[in-house]
Amino acid sequence: MSKERLYLFDTTLRDGAQTKGVDFSVEDKRTIALALDQLGLDYIEGGWPGANPTDTSFFENPPRLRRAKLVAFGMTKRAGRSVSNDPGLSQVLGAEADAVCLVGKSWDFHVDLALGIPREENLVSIRESIAAAVERGREAMFDAEHFFDGYRDNPDYALACIEAALEGGARWVVLCDTNGGTLPADVERIVAEVAAKYPGERIGIHAHNDTENAVANSLAAVHAGARQVQGTLNGLGERCGNANMISVIPSLMLKPIYADRFETGIPVTELRHLTQTSRLLDELLNRAPNRHQAYVGDSAFAHKGGLHVSAVQKDPKTYEHIDPEIVGNRRHVLVSDQAGRSNILARLEECGIEVENDDPRVGRLLDAVKQREFEGYSYDGAEASFELMARRTLGQVPEYFRVERFRVMVERRFNARGELVTVSEATVKMLAGGEDRLTVGEGNGPVNALDQALRQALDGLYAELSDLRLVDFKVRILTGGTEAVTRVLIESADGTGERWFTVGVSSNIVEASFDALHDSITYKLYRDGARTAGRIAAE
């Protein structure tokens, strides 16, 4: 039996750009568009030509897409103007794009209040604007703004807007839950009623996430008859975001309720790029990936409880709804004070550490983990520190350097221009490369200064550290008072795109930071197979 076709429309470059704190450059937009095209989406909305310099520049030299159609976004013609006399619409229609998506009012309340025009005039604007796009040879789409609110208040008028777009030649009419307030049961009911009047293969869904239901609403709409789904990478979008394409895509393709009925333009083999594409966006935005994001998060297939790990080892389906490798992710077995022997064994295997099940060192390592977590360490979020502890227990980690002492000073003073500044300075004395090394580093804060001093001391000894960078630093106070125990979690990365977490705990925040920094550098050297640069010191 042949399957029905579903079409995937990504609006990261337009809707996603409205996210607070997100500011795509033209090159960012090109990079994201090419990644989406490789993944196999049907439509990629590039932005609104004429609305801002970035979008205009993007459409002046758009990327060459192999699979997807590039879409220019705009709005229907303004009231009181003809199609040919609306500069904004003309710029959208003239953009170098395969398709045009025009947004217009479908809620009579907005037509009356915001536009202040007769409702019939709004229908004319929709019809004529869509027709103009078709005449230009563009595939035309109509985004029915606030459709669900409009349908609840006045279904006849909301449907009249849809009909006007179809009469103008729209390939798609997209039902928008613009304020994100509609729940799945209502979405399914309303989409089903619309699909009973108009062909389902002409209906799309555009959901916002203000009630945390954008993905659920999108899936409900497909179940009710919609055949195009719009969304953004990682759920970017204004306010609470849009439907998350990273969750929508695998749900449609891997869950039998949809996979048995529908097909998308994405080959199942291309789903292995899903995690990579999600993290590419975070890298461009210079932010840490959401470790708990469905399907692609670092913790999406992480197992902590001992009983869970035992079950997963026997049959992964027990606690994993899909094979993580299908979406380019992998299984993580975490260790903590809740861990059992099976956690330790599984985690050692994941790290590539071969050890017999009855090796007494496994029990000692488990006891050490539980004791250290009692003291404040957390290894379920600092897997690199756990691996180092395990390998040190097994005698596998060389001593690349030995820090004999360090000192950190923070000085608040006036500079030569009379400005009040705070300067951090760190001094490190270490044994490395067969000699004593004493270095001083300055930085933006004591931890950065300490990092700089450590790097300078190792300069020239280990080329492996040239691309090491610290990307995140988190501090948690575990107990109150002036003698509080502090836990520091550091996230590091290198030129390969690999990221790892290390942890330090102390009543002194600088000492905790030092321990996490020390582990980060050591892990990088061990992972890259660095050879010790001479003896640490004469015995």
Give the gist of this structure:
This protein has 539 residues and is of the alpha/beta class. The protein has three domains: 4-266, Alpha-Beta Barrel (TIM Barrel), CATH 3.20.20.70; 302-375, no CATH class; 402-527, Alpha-isopropylmalate synthase LeuA, regulatory domain (Double Stranded RNA Binding Domain), CATH 3.30.160.
Topology:
Blueprint: E1 4-5, E2 7-10, H1 26-39, E3 43-47, H2 53-60, E4 69-75, H3 87-93, E5 99-105, H4 108-115, H5 119-135, E6 139-145, H6 147-153, H7 155-168, E7 172-177, H8 184-197, E8 203-207, H9 214-224, E9 228-231, H10 245-254, H11 256-259, E10 262-263, H12 274-284, E11 302-303, H13 306-314, E12 332-333, H14 341-350, H15 360-375, H16 383-393, E13 402-414, E14 420-432, E15 435-443, H17 446-458, E16 469-477, E17 486-493, E18 499-506, H18 509-527
Helix pairs in contact: 1-2, 1-12, 5-7, 6-7, 8-9, 13-14, 16-18, 17-18
- The chain-level structural class is alpha/beta
Main-sheet strand order equals 2-3-4-5-6-7-8-9
Largest sheet: 8 strands, parallel, barrel
Name the poorly predicted regions.
none
- Beta-strand percent range: 15-25%
CATH class call of the largest domain: Alpha Beta
Provide structural commentary.
With 539 residues, this protein is α/β, with parallel strands linked by helices. It has 3 domains: 4-266, Aldolase class I (TIM Barrel), CATH 3.20.20.70; 302-375, no CATH class; 402-527, Alpha-isopropylmalate synthase LeuA, regulatory domain (Double Stranded RNA Binding Domain, 2-Layer Sandwich), CATH 3.30.160.270. The protein has helices spanning 26-39, 53-60, 87-93, 108-115, 119-135, 147-153, 155-168, 184-197, 214-224, 245-254, 256-259, 274-284, 306-314, 341-350, 360-375, 383-393, 446-458, 509-527, and strands spanning 4-5, 7-10, 43-47, 69-75, 99-105, 139-145, 172-177, 203-207, 228-231, 262-263, 302-303, 332-333, 402-414, 420-432, 435-443, 469-477, 486-493, 499-506. Helix 8 links the parallel strand 7 (172-177) and strand 8 (203-207). The longest helix is centred in the C-terminal third of the chain and has 19 residues, at 509-527. The radius of gyration is 28 Å and the shape is elongated. The protein starts with a strand and ends in a 12-residue tail after the last helix. The relative contact order is 0.07. The model has no long low-confidence stretch (mean pLDDT 91).
